[in-house]
Amino acid sequence: MEMTWAERMEVEYTRKGVQEGLRQGVAALHQVVLRLLAQRFGAVPEPVRAKVEAIDSTDVLSDLAGKVLEVKSIDEMGL
Question: What is the pLDDT of residue 58?
Protein backbone atom coordinates (compact mmCIF):
# COMPACT_ATOMS: atom_id res chain seq x y z
CA MET A 1 0.00 0.00 0.00
CA GLU A 2 1.35 3.41 -0.92
CA MET A 3 2.00 5.94 1.83
CA THR A 4 0.11 9.20 1.91
CA TRP A 5 1.93 12.51 1.68
CA ALA A 6 1.43 13.01 5.44
CA GLU A 7 2.91 9.56 6.18
CA ARG A 8 5.90 10.25 3.95
CA MET A 9 6.49 13.58 5.72
CA GLU A 10 6.22 11.89 9.13
CA VAL A 11 8.81 9.29 8.10
CA GLU A 12 11.10 11.99 6.70
CA TYR A 13 10.87 14.19 9.80
CA THR A 14 11.40 11.20 12.06
CA ARG A 15 14.50 10.22 10.06
CA LYS A 16 15.85 13.76 10.26
CA GLY A 17 15.15 13.87 13.99
CA VAL A 18 17.01 10.64 14.58
CA GLN A 19 19.96 11.85 12.52
CA GLU A 20 20.05 15.14 14.43
CA GLY A 21 19.89 13.28 17.74
CA LEU A 22 22.79 11.07 16.74
CA ARG A 23 24.78 14.09 15.59
CA GLN A 24 24.21 15.79 18.94
CA GLY A 25 25.11 12.61 20.79
CA VAL A 26 28.38 12.28 18.90
CA ALA A 27 29.21 15.95 19.56
CA ALA A 28 28.51 15.46 23.27
CA LEU A 29 30.74 12.38 23.38
CA HIS A 30 33.52 14.33 21.64
CA GLN A 31 33.36 16.83 24.50
CA VAL A 32 33.28 14.11 27.17
CA VAL A 33 36.34 12.33 25.76
CA LEU A 34 38.27 15.58 25.32
CA ARG A 35 37.37 16.75 28.84
CA LEU A 36 38.43 13.43 30.34
CA LEU A 37 41.72 13.54 28.45
CA ALA A 38 42.39 17.09 29.62
CA GLN A 39 41.55 16.29 33.23
CA ARG A 40 43.73 13.21 33.25
CA PHE A 41 46.70 14.35 31.15
CA GLY A 42 46.54 18.14 30.85
CA ALA A 43 46.34 20.05 27.59
CA VAL A 44 45.17 17.85 24.71
CA PRO A 45 47.48 18.15 21.67
CA GLU A 46 45.73 19.44 18.57
CA PRO A 47 46.40 16.26 16.51
CA VAL A 48 44.72 14.18 19.24
CA ARG A 49 41.82 16.63 19.46
CA ALA A 50 41.36 16.47 15.67
CA LYS A 51 41.36 12.66 15.69
CA VAL A 52 38.76 12.51 18.47
CA GLU A 53 36.54 15.03 16.68
CA ALA A 54 36.80 13.02 13.44
CA ILE A 55 35.24 9.93 15.07
CA ASP A 56 31.54 9.62 14.22
CA SER A 57 30.71 6.42 16.10
CA THR A 58 29.10 6.62 19.54
CA ASP A 59 30.42 3.13 20.30
CA VAL A 60 34.02 4.08 19.51
CA LEU A 61 33.76 7.31 21.48
CA SER A 62 32.25 5.49 24.47
CA ASP A 63 35.08 2.98 24.36
CA LEU A 64 37.62 5.83 24.28
CA ALA A 65 36.00 7.46 27.31
CA GLY A 66 36.48 4.24 29.26
CA LYS A 67 40.01 3.79 27.98
CA VAL A 68 41.04 7.17 29.43
CA LEU A 69 40.69 5.60 32.86
CA GLU A 70 42.88 2.62 31.97
CA VAL A 71 45.91 4.10 30.20
CA LYS A 72 48.96 5.69 31.80
CA SER A 73 49.58 8.29 29.09
CA ILE A 74 47.73 10.04 26.31
CA ASP A 75 50.01 8.24 23.84
CA GLU A 76 48.57 4.90 24.99
CA MET A 77 45.15 6.04 23.74
CA GLY A 78 46.25 5.13 20.21
CA LEU A 79 45.05 8.40 18.72
Answer: 92
Cα–Cα distance for residue pair 47/66, rounded to 1 Å: 20
Q: What pLDDT is recorded for position 52?
A: 97
d(CA 34, CA 56): 14
Comparing CA positions, the residue from 5, 75, 1 lying closest to residue 41 is 75
On whether the CB atoms of residues 58 and 29 are closer than 8 A, the answer is yes
Q: Check residue 28 and give its pLDDT.
A: 95
DSSP notation for the chain: -PPPHHHHHHHHHHHHHHHHHHHHHHHHHHHHHHHHHHHHHSSPPHHHHHHHHH---HHHHHHHHHHHTT-SSGGGG--
Distances (CA, A) of 28 to 17, 67, 69: 16, 17, 18
Regions of the chain where pLDDT drops below 70: none
